[in-house]
Design goal:
It is built from 16 helices and 19 strands. It is of the alpha+beta class. It has three domains: 92 residues, 2-Layer Sandwich (Uridine Diphospho-n-acetylenolpyruvylglucosamine Reductase, domain 2), CATH 3.30.43; 119 residues, Uridine Diphospho-n-acetylenolpyruvylglucosamine Reductase, domain 3 (2-Layer Sandwich); 187 residues, 3-Layer(aba) Sandwich (Vanillyl-alcohol Oxidase, Chain A, domain 3). The strands form four sheets. Strands 12, 13, 14, 15, 16, 17, 18 and 19 form an eight-stranded antiparallel β-sheet that branches. The longest helix is centred in the last third of the chain and has 18 residues. It is globular. The protein starts with a helix and ends in a 15-residue tail after the last helix.
Length: 464
């Protein structure tokens, strides 16, 4: 984009939206270049807009289409795929001032919210009404609902309650032409026409901008009962996952941490974990009454049968909350060890032991520390590549390890991203996983929604 086009576009925004907060100073723009994805070095955006209502978003997109200016939607900036990084000459629209919970509808068990509300704040608000919003990324305290919608975020409870897409019954969106469109509503069932909501959730702002969401709520479940099981090897922990599932247990949480993660988390939180164990499973049940205790008895037997060295049951809710919070903060514990790059592979649950073995093989072959934790109950693993902060070859090592991990997951019938999104960091693997015909269909969808190609260009789809 030439300088005159950018200047004309900014002047048009100031004229049409004089009360909009618009950032153009380079020092202000610096904070909007990146998300939490390591090693991406995008340029600063042309400007950052901070709207407070849908009408402002619609006008911004209308003007962007008129001037052919790229638009990058951005939530809290906590993403791990480069989905919200800036585009040269583009307008970044931050949704963090659109942070109002508009309605909690108890009779229909839904909440209507703007996208800038933090996940934890939404959970707290509905909990005060005796209700429960299920999607719970580990970054719940810092991630926004808009970002969760953009990536189809998962989390610790998605094994039982589903991912973000499963909780969405209605959306308000702004299209690439600046038109405001409502999809869905408050009904539990709706079979009218094509399913546009599932298509937009997870598209990372490449098809439309989400300005409001109607989300499904549930009655608050009982407090969880928590089982910790420690294993002498990663593969025995993987075998235990298969055994728990085969035994018919339906945990609300089934998480894994390897030895490096256990020690880092224990250093941070002083939980008294078994630091010599090769792996730990955290299994939770929120069934009512004696159901939770019985479920964990079955899970305990399955773990011991798979080779667990020891098991512990935490029945005190405060103790269980502390363990859960420590697991949520595992990535931050990793960052104390060096530069940590979290990957997001997923495999069929039956292939979890094989993927864990692949991670160990890749770490050994490449001489790297790879610390693994994740939502192992649904096959979603987060291998964390740990590099020395002053390693001049760090970037090259990271690329080699990431490539090996992604190819291993695909080879096992899995995915290169289970919940973080393709974004800008994994585009080269999309066709390898999905195939050229599927990517061609995705391009056709993108063209139908965004014929000018202004919505978050350079994300999700590989270059043609």
């Amino acid at each position: 984009m030439d300088t005159s086009t950018g200047a004309a576009f900014l002047e048009a925004i100031r004229t049409s939206l004089p009360n909009l907060r618009l950032l153009t100073d380079l020092l202000d723009l610096e904070g909007y270049r990146r998300d939490e994805t390591a090693y991406l070095e995008p340029p600063p955006p042309l400007a950052v807009a901070l709207p407070t209502e849908t009408a402002e978003v619609a006008e911004l997109v209308r003007l962007a289409a008129q001037h052919r200016v790229p638009v990058v939607p951005r939530g809290a900036g906590s993403g791990l795929s480069g989905g919200a990084i800036a585009v040269a000459g583009g307008l970044t629209i931050s949704f963090m001032r659109m942070n109002r919970i508009l309605e909690i509808d108890r009779s229909n068990l839904v909440v209507i919210t703007q996208p800038g509300v933090l996940n934890a704040a939404l959970k707290q608000a509905v909990a005060a009404e005796g209700l429960f919003y299920a999607p719970d990324p580990a970054s719940t305290e810092i991630c926004s609902i808009g970002g969760n919608l953009g990536t189809n975020a998962g989390g610790l409870c998605c094994l039982k309650y589903g991912v973000t897409r499963d909780a969405v019954v209605g959306l308000e969106i702004v299209t690439a032409s600046g038109e405001v469109v409502r999809l869905g509503g408050r009904t539990t069932k709706d079979a009218a026409g094509y399913g546009l909501i599932p298509l937009i959730i997870g598209s990372q702002g490449t098809l439309a901008l989400i300005t409001e969401a109607t989300l499904r709520l549930r009655p608050t479940p009982p407090p969880s009962v928590t089982l910790l099981a420690f294993f002498p090897s990663l593969t025995s922990a993987g075998d235990a996952v298969a055994a728990v599932v085969a035994a018919g247990v339906e945990p609300s949480t089934l998480e894994l941490m390897d030895r490096t993660t256990i020690r880092a988390v224990d250093d941070d939180h002083h939980l008294g974990l078994d630091r010599d164990a090769a792996a730990m499973l955290m299994i939770e049940s929120d069934l009512p009454g004696a159901g939770a205790t019985r479920a964990l008895e079955i899970a305990d037997a399955a773990c011991l049968g798979a080779g667990a060295a020891s098991t512990i049951v935490a029945t005190d809710p405060a103790e269980a909350d502390l363990l859960r919070q420590a697991r949520r903060e595992a990535f931050h514990s990793m960052e104390r060890l060096g530069v940590a790059r979290m990957e997001d592979v997923g495999v069929p649950r039956g292939r979890v032991p094989a993927m864990l073995a692949e991670i160990e093989r890749i770490a050994a072959e490449q001489g790297l520390t790879i610390a693994t934790f994740g939502h192992v109950g649904d096959g979603n693993l987060h291998p964390n590549i740990i590099l020395d902060r002053d390693d001049p070859d760090g970037h090259a090592k990271l690329l080699r390890a990431t490539d090996a991990l992604c190819r291993a997951a695909i080879g096992l019938g899995g995915t290169v991203t289970a919940e973080h999104g393709i974004g800008a960091s994994r585009r080269e693997y999309l066709e390898l996983q999905r195939g050229s015909a599927a990517v061609a269909l995705m391009r056709a969808v993108k063209t139908a929604f965004d014929p000018l190609g202004i919505l978050n260009p350079g994300k999700v789809l590989p270059d043609a």
